[in-house]
Design a protein that fits this description.
By secondary structure, this protein is α/β, with parallel strands linked by helices. It is built from 16 helices and 22 strands.
C-alpha cells in the first residue's frame, strides 16, 4: 500500500478543500483514490442555466437548439446515479447574454420556452443529498414541487423573482416543505398576497420546522397560523399598514433577530382596546436591523440589545430616540451626515452602550474654491473637546466618514497635516472617559486612525492622504480589526 493510500479519506477531503477548483480537476484525473475522494468536492455544487438573460432588454431567452441539447446532456450527467449523490447545493439562474450575441431564441418564438426548466424539475428528485436550492428567475412545476418537498436533507430554499410555469396547474393539498430556512424575494411593489409563489411557500412550509424566514417585496401582512420556531425574521413591509404588520409579527413569538426594510410612510392607528402595539409582539426580540421608521415601537422592549439602522438622516434617527433605553448595548447606524447634537442624543438615550459604530455618507461636489470638505475634520475637532456625553461603558467605538463625489474624475482637495486632528490626545481622553475602551476606529475618508488593546499588546496605526492605498487596505481589513482577529 502506497503512502497516500494509508492517509484517511477524511484528511484528504480537508486538504483538497483548500485547493482551487481548477487544480482539483487535475488531481481528480491522476489517481483512482484521489478521483473518488475529490468527487465529493468537484460535484458538490450544481449551477444550472435554464434561460439566457438579455442584459439590455432584461428579458429571458432560450439557448440555441444546440445549446439546449448541450444543457440537457449536462443535466443528465449531473443527475446520473454516479454524480447526483454528491450534489449538496444547487443554483438555478439565467446566463447573462448580450443583445446581438448569437445563439439565443426569444421565448415567444419557440413552442417549448421552458423545456430546460421543466427537465430540471422532472429530475430534481435524483438529488437526494441536496441541502440548499437557490433559484433566480426560475419557474416551478407541480412535479418539481412534489420532488422538492420530498428531498430528505433540504434545509434552505431561496427564490428570487421566480414564478410558476405558465399554464401549470398546482395542487398543494398534499405538499409539505420541511426546510428550516426560506427566503423569497419579489419585485418591489408586489404584495405578498399577490405573489403566487410567496402564497404557495407560506401555505406548504412546515411551520414547526421553519427557523428562518425572509420575505421581501411590499407586503402588508398575511394571514394564517403561527410560526412557533422562527428565530430570524426578515420582511419588506408596507409601513403605511403597520396595524396589519403588527398582526403578522404576532405570529412569530420566538423571533430574536428582526429585519424590516420596506416602503411607504409610517402609519399606525390604535383604533380600540384590541389594537396591537409594539410591546404586544416579539417578546424575545434581541436584535433589530433595517429601517428607522418603526424603531420607536420596538425600542422599549427590555430584551432588545442590538440595533442596526440603515440609511437615515440624523433628524430621522433622533426622532425615534424619545427616552432612555438602558437595555440597548450595541448600535450600528448608517447616517446621511452627522453633527455633534445627534451624537449627544444617541449617547444620552443609549447610556449603556458598549459598542457604537456610525458610518456617515455625505455628498462632496469637489468644486469649492475654499479647499477641502471640512465636515470630517471639523466634526473630529469638536468631538475631541466634547467627549463627556459618551457612555463610560463603551468598549468599541468606530466613526467613519465617506464622501460621495459627483464623478470619478472630480478634482479632490485633501486636508493638510495641520487640519488632521490630534488623535493620540483624543485617544487618551477617550480612555479616561471610557475605561473599558479596547477598540477605536476614526475614519475621515482621507485619513484613518485606528487603535486597539489586545490581551498581550497594543496596536495603533494612522494613515493620511499621502498613503491612499494603505487607507483602502485598512478599510478592507476593518471587519477583522473590529472583531479582534
Amino acid at each position: 500500500m502506497s503512502a497516500h493510500e494509508r492517509v484517511p479519506n477524511e484528511l484528504w477531503l480537508e486538504i483538497f478543500g483548500l485547493i482551487p477548483q481548477d487544480s482539483l480537476k487535475h488531481i481528480h484525473a491522476t489517481d483512482r483514490k484521489f478521483a473518488n475522494v475529490s468527487r465529493a468536492l468537484l460535484f458538490s455544487h450544481l449551477v444550472f442555466h435554464p434561460y439566457h438573460l438579455d442584459q439590455v432588454e432584461r428579458r429571458l431567452t432560450l439557448p440555441s437548439p444546440d445549446g439546449v441539447q448541450l444543457a440537457l446532456d449536462r443535466l443528465n450527467f449531473w443527475s446520473s446515479d454516479d454524480i447526483s449523490p454528491y450534489v449538496r447545493e444547487c443554483t438555478i439562474a439565467p446566463r447573462c447574454w448580450r443583445a446581438g450575441e448569437a445563439g439565443s431564441v426569444l421565448l415567444e418564438h419557440t413552442d417549448s420556452p421552458h423545456i430546460l426548466m421543466i427537465s430540471f424539475m422532472d429530475l430534481l428528485a435524483k438529488f437526494t443529498a441536496l441541502k440548499k436550492l437557490s433559484a433566480r428567475q426560475a419557474h416551478f412545476t407541480q412535479a418539481g414541487l412534489v420532488s422538492l418537498c420530498q428531498l430528505p436533507l433540504l434545509t434552505e430554499l431561496a427564490t428570487r423573482w421566480c414564478d410558476i410555469v405558465p399554464g401549470e396547474t398546482i395542487d398543494a393539498t398534499s405538499l409539505q416543505l420541511r426546510t428550516t430556512k426560506l427566503l423569497h424575494h419579489a419585485d418591489v411593489g408586489v404584495a405578498w398576497d399577490e405573489d403566487k409563489l410567496c402564497t404557495l411557500w407560506l401555505s406548504i412550509v412546515h411551520r414547526e420546522c421553519l427557523q428562518e424566514l425572509q420575505l421581501t417585496g411590499s407586503g402588508s401582512g398575511f394571514e394564517g397560523p403561527a410560526f412557533p420556531n422562527v428565530s430570524r425574521l426578515g420582511l419588506g413591509p408596507n409601513f403605511s399598514t403597520m396595524n396589519r404588520n403588527l398582526a403578522t409579527l404576532s405570529r412569530f413569538p420566538a423571533v430574536r433577530k428582526l429585519w424590516l426594510q420596506g416602503l411607504g410612510e409610517f402609519q399606525y392607528q390604535s383604533t380600540d382596546a384590541s389594537s396591537l402595539h409594539g410591546h404586544d409582539v416579539l417578546p424575545l426580540l434581541q436584535e433589530y436591523s433595517g429601517s428607522w421608521k418603526p424603531l420607536h415601537m420596538f425600542l422599549p422592549k427590555p430584551t432588545l440589545a442590538c440595533l442596526d439602522i440603515h440609511f437615515c438622516t440624523p433628524e430621522e434617527l433622533s426622532s425615534q430616540l424619545r427616552e432612555e433605553y438602558r437595555h440597548i448595548t450595541s448600535l450600528y447606524a448608517t447616517l446621511i451626515d452627522l453633527d455633534q447634537q445627534t451624537l449627544n442624543t444617541i449617547c444620552t438615550c443609549l447610556p449603556e452602550l458598549t459598542e457604537l459604530h456610525i458610518r456617515i455618507y455625505t455628498f462632496d461636489d469637489a468644486q469649492r474654491e475654499d479647499g477641502f470638505n471640512p465636515k470630517a475634520t471639523s466634526f473630529f475637532s469638536t468631538f475631541g473637546t466634547t467627549l463627556t456625553s459618551l457612555p463610560p461603558t463603551l468598549k468599541r467605538l468606530a466613526i467613519a466618514w465617506e464622501f460621495e463625489f459627483e464623478s470619478d474624475d472630480a478634482q479632490v482637495v485633501y486636508p493638510g497635516p495641520k487640519h488632521i486632528p490630534d488623535f493620540l490626545a483624543m485617544r487618551d481622553k477617550l480612555r479616561k472617559r471610557c475605561p473599558a475602551l479596547r477598540t477605536l476606529w476614526l475614519d475621515g475618508h482621507h485619513f484613518i486612525f485606528r487603535w486597539r488593546q489586545l490581551l498581550d499588546r497594543e496596536e495603533m496605526e494612522q494613515q493620511n492622504e499621502i498613503k491612499a492605498t494603505e487607507i483602502e487596505n485598512l478599510r478592507e481589513r476593518f471587519k477583522d480589526f473590529w472583531e479582534g482577529r
